[in-house]
Amino acid sequence: xxxxIFSLALLxxxxxxxxxxxxxxxxxxxxxxxxxxxxxxxxxxxGKTKEDPIARxxxxxxxxxxxxxxxxxxxYNENWRLGANEATEIEFFKPITIAGTAVATGRxxxxxxxxxxxxxxxxxxxxxxxxxxxxxxxxxxxRTDIPVTKNxxxxxxxxxxxxxxxxxxxxxxxxxxxxTSLPIGL
Length: 186
What we know:
By secondary structure, the chain is an alpha+beta fold. The protein has two helices and ten strands; from the N terminus they run αβαβββββββββ.
Protein backbone atom coordinates (compact mmCIF):
# COMPACT_ATOMS: atom_id res chain seq x y z
CA UNK A 1 0.00 0.00 0.00
CA UNK A 2 2.86 2.38 0.85
CA UNK A 3 4.39 1.75 -2.58
CA UNK A 4 1.05 2.53 -4.23
CA ILE A 5 0.62 5.82 -2.31
CA PHE A 6 4.24 6.79 -3.02
CA SER A 7 3.82 5.99 -6.73
CA LEU A 8 0.56 7.97 -6.87
CA ALA A 9 2.16 10.95 -5.12
CA LEU A 10 5.17 10.81 -7.45
CA LEU A 11 2.93 10.63 -10.52
CA UNK A 12 0.85 13.59 -9.26
CA UNK A 13 4.03 15.60 -8.69
CA UNK A 14 5.32 14.86 -12.21
CA UNK A 15 1.97 15.78 -13.79
CA UNK A 16 1.78 19.02 -11.77
CA UNK A 17 5.35 19.99 -12.73
CA UNK A 18 4.68 19.22 -16.37
CA UNK A 19 1.49 21.29 -16.37
CA UNK A 20 3.25 24.20 -14.65
CA UNK A 21 6.08 24.04 -17.19
CA UNK A 22 3.61 24.39 -20.06
CA UNK A 23 1.80 27.34 -18.42
CA UNK A 24 4.81 29.58 -18.03
CA UNK A 25 6.82 31.12 -20.81
CA UNK A 26 9.03 34.12 -21.24
CA UNK A 27 7.04 37.21 -22.11
CA UNK A 28 7.92 38.68 -25.50
CA UNK A 29 8.41 42.04 -23.72
CA UNK A 30 9.88 41.15 -20.32
CA UNK A 31 9.48 43.47 -17.36
CA UNK A 32 12.52 45.38 -16.11
CA UNK A 33 13.33 47.67 -13.20
CA UNK A 34 16.03 50.32 -12.81
CA UNK A 35 17.00 52.13 -9.61
CA UNK A 36 18.60 55.40 -8.63
CA UNK A 37 21.19 54.81 -7.30
CA UNK A 38 22.18 52.07 -9.74
CA UNK A 39 22.13 48.56 -8.25
CA UNK A 40 20.30 49.81 -5.16
CA UNK A 41 19.07 46.34 -4.06
CA UNK A 42 22.66 45.02 -4.08
CA UNK A 43 23.90 48.07 -2.17
CA UNK A 44 21.24 47.43 0.47
CA UNK A 45 21.95 43.69 0.72
CA UNK A 46 25.71 44.37 1.04
CA GLY A 47 25.03 46.88 3.84
CA LYS A 48 26.40 49.79 1.78
CA THR A 49 23.23 51.87 2.27
CA LYS A 50 20.44 52.09 4.80
CA GLU A 51 18.58 54.85 3.00
CA ASP A 52 15.67 54.40 0.62
CA PRO A 53 16.48 54.74 -3.07
CA ILE A 54 15.80 58.06 -4.76
CA ALA A 55 13.76 56.56 -7.60
CA ARG A 56 12.93 53.41 -9.53
CA UNK A 57 11.28 52.81 -12.87
CA UNK A 58 9.30 49.66 -13.75
CA UNK A 59 8.65 48.99 -17.43
CA UNK A 60 8.38 46.30 -20.10
CA UNK A 61 11.04 45.96 -22.81
CA UNK A 62 9.64 45.57 -26.32
CA UNK A 63 12.07 44.27 -28.95
CA UNK A 64 12.85 45.90 -32.28
CA UNK A 65 12.87 42.57 -34.20
CA UNK A 66 13.71 44.26 -37.51
CA UNK A 67 10.69 46.55 -37.31
CA UNK A 68 10.52 50.32 -37.72
CA UNK A 69 10.10 51.53 -34.15
CA UNK A 70 9.42 55.28 -34.06
CA UNK A 71 7.02 56.34 -36.77
CA UNK A 72 6.17 52.61 -37.14
CA UNK A 73 5.05 50.44 -34.21
CA UNK A 74 5.24 53.59 -32.03
CA UNK A 75 3.38 56.24 -34.05
CA TYR A 76 4.58 59.83 -33.95
CA ASN A 77 2.38 62.42 -32.23
CA GLU A 78 0.41 59.79 -30.27
CA ASN A 79 0.53 58.92 -26.59
CA TRP A 80 2.89 55.99 -25.88
CA ARG A 81 3.28 54.05 -22.62
CA LEU A 82 7.12 54.11 -22.78
CA GLY A 83 7.48 50.38 -23.25
CA ALA A 84 5.05 47.53 -23.79
CA ASN A 85 2.13 45.96 -21.94
CA GLU A 86 1.33 47.82 -18.70
CA ALA A 87 2.12 51.51 -18.59
CA THR A 88 5.56 52.39 -17.26
CA GLU A 89 5.65 53.38 -13.60
CA ILE A 90 8.17 55.61 -11.88
CA GLU A 91 8.37 55.95 -8.12
CA PHE A 92 10.14 58.72 -6.26
CA PHE A 93 11.14 57.98 -2.68
CA LYS A 94 12.19 61.59 -2.09
CA PRO A 95 10.85 64.87 -3.48
CA ILE A 96 12.50 65.78 -6.80
CA THR A 97 12.09 68.32 -9.60
CA ILE A 98 11.55 67.83 -13.31
CA ALA A 99 11.74 70.84 -15.64
CA GLY A 100 11.50 73.16 -12.64
CA THR A 101 8.31 71.51 -11.34
CA ALA A 102 8.38 70.05 -7.83
CA VAL A 103 7.28 66.42 -7.77
CA ALA A 104 6.21 64.88 -4.46
CA THR A 105 7.27 61.49 -3.17
CA GLY A 106 5.05 58.81 -4.70
CA ARG A 107 4.31 56.56 -7.64
CA UNK A 108 3.44 57.94 -11.07
CA UNK A 109 2.81 56.67 -14.59
CA UNK A 110 5.13 57.84 -17.38
CA UNK A 111 3.85 58.48 -20.88
CA UNK A 112 5.50 59.96 -23.93
CA UNK A 113 4.37 61.63 -27.14
CA UNK A 114 7.27 61.02 -29.53
CA UNK A 115 8.19 63.05 -32.62
CA UNK A 116 11.35 62.75 -34.74
CA UNK A 117 13.06 65.63 -32.87
CA UNK A 118 11.58 65.66 -29.35
CA UNK A 119 9.57 63.62 -26.88
CA UNK A 120 6.92 65.14 -24.67
CA UNK A 121 7.24 63.31 -21.36
CA UNK A 122 4.09 63.12 -19.26
CA UNK A 123 4.02 62.31 -15.55
CA UNK A 124 0.53 61.17 -14.51
CA UNK A 125 -0.99 60.37 -11.13
CA UNK A 126 -3.25 57.76 -12.81
CA UNK A 127 -1.53 54.52 -11.77
CA UNK A 128 -2.02 50.82 -12.51
CA UNK A 129 -3.08 51.22 -16.12
CA UNK A 130 -2.47 49.01 -19.10
CA UNK A 131 -0.88 50.66 -22.10
CA UNK A 132 -2.01 54.18 -22.76
CA UNK A 133 -5.64 53.17 -23.18
CA UNK A 134 -7.81 55.28 -20.93
CA UNK A 135 -5.14 57.96 -20.56
CA UNK A 136 -6.67 61.01 -18.82
CA UNK A 137 -4.86 64.35 -19.32
CA UNK A 138 -6.68 65.74 -16.25
CA UNK A 139 -4.44 63.51 -14.11
CA UNK A 140 -1.17 64.91 -15.50
CA UNK A 141 1.30 66.18 -12.92
CA UNK A 142 3.60 67.64 -15.54
CA ARG A 143 4.56 67.68 -19.22
CA THR A 144 8.00 68.54 -20.51
CA ASP A 145 9.80 68.26 -23.84
CA ILE A 146 13.17 66.54 -24.16
CA PRO A 147 15.31 66.38 -27.31
CA VAL A 148 15.90 63.22 -29.34
CA THR A 149 19.44 62.28 -30.29
CA LYS A 150 20.48 59.61 -32.76
CA ASN A 151 22.86 56.80 -31.79
CA UNK A 152 25.29 55.05 -34.10
CA UNK A 153 24.50 51.83 -32.28
CA UNK A 154 21.03 50.21 -32.48
CA UNK A 155 19.50 49.10 -29.18
CA UNK A 156 17.38 45.98 -29.77
CA UNK A 157 15.29 46.10 -26.57
CA UNK A 158 13.78 49.30 -25.19
CA UNK A 159 15.98 50.27 -22.25
CA UNK A 160 15.65 52.73 -19.36
CA UNK A 161 18.24 53.48 -16.69
CA UNK A 162 19.33 56.27 -14.39
CA UNK A 163 22.63 58.05 -14.93
CA UNK A 164 24.25 60.33 -12.33
CA UNK A 165 24.34 63.97 -13.37
CA UNK A 166 25.31 66.31 -10.55
CA UNK A 167 23.34 67.65 -8.76
CA UNK A 168 20.73 65.15 -9.90
CA UNK A 169 20.34 62.37 -12.43
CA UNK A 170 19.07 61.66 -15.91
CA UNK A 171 16.58 58.97 -16.86
CA UNK A 172 18.09 57.62 -20.09
CA UNK A 173 15.75 55.98 -22.61
CA UNK A 174 17.16 54.02 -25.58
CA UNK A 175 15.55 52.09 -28.39
CA UNK A 176 16.56 51.47 -31.98
CA UNK A 177 18.89 54.35 -32.90
CA UNK A 178 17.14 56.86 -30.58
CA UNK A 179 18.31 58.18 -27.23
CA THR A 180 16.56 60.63 -24.90
CA SER A 181 17.42 61.93 -21.44
CA LEU A 182 15.01 63.25 -18.81
CA PRO A 183 16.84 65.46 -16.24
CA ILE A 184 15.77 64.89 -12.64
CA GLY A 185 16.75 67.40 -9.97
CA LEU A 186 17.41 66.32 -6.39
